[in-house]
Amino acid sequence: MEKEKFDFSKLKAGDKVLVCDRYGEAVAKVEKITPSGFVRVQGRLYYSDGSSRSSDIWYTPWLKPWTQERENELKREHMIAKVVDKLNKLRVSDLDYDTAVKIADILANKKGNTHGKT
Q1: pTM here?
Q2: Of 69, 93, 78, 53, which is closest to residue 16 (Cα–Cα)?
Q3: Which residues on adjacent β-strands are paired with residue 65?
Q4: Which of 42, 43, 86, 98 has a CA between 20 and 30 Å from the CA of residue 61?
Q5: Distance between CA atoms of 5 and 118, rounded to whole angstroms?
Q6: What angle do CA 106, 114, 72 make, to 5 degrees?
Q7: DSSP designation for 52
Q8: pLDDT grade for 78, boundaries at 50, 70 and 90
Q9: DSSP label at residue 51
Q10: CA 98, CA 104: separation in Å to the nearest integer?
Q11: Pairwise CA distance, residues 105 & 110, whole Å
């Protein structure tokens, strides 16, 4: 079964889309739909099928339809990446006992989720 095509030119200014590239995905808003049907997002033009209207062969982002579920996933992934980054920068020699105990509790799954649903 072929995947149904999404016509991005049917969107309106302010609608959310996913801008994708080789590095990942991000939520962005449609700036405008041009009279010729191009979609402007983050200063770039896209065709109605979501492909980038660009001659830059090194960077060719594309659009995907936005869903609340995917936006929530991206927020969770971003939060995890931020925490991992902070942990990677953590200097163990700077830890005090109380902080070490809290981290040990979290790693042992003794603490509940304090940042919303998982």
Answers
A1: 0.73
A2: 69
A3: 17
A4: 86
A5: 31
A6: 115
A7: B
A8: very high
A9: B
A10: 10
A11: 5
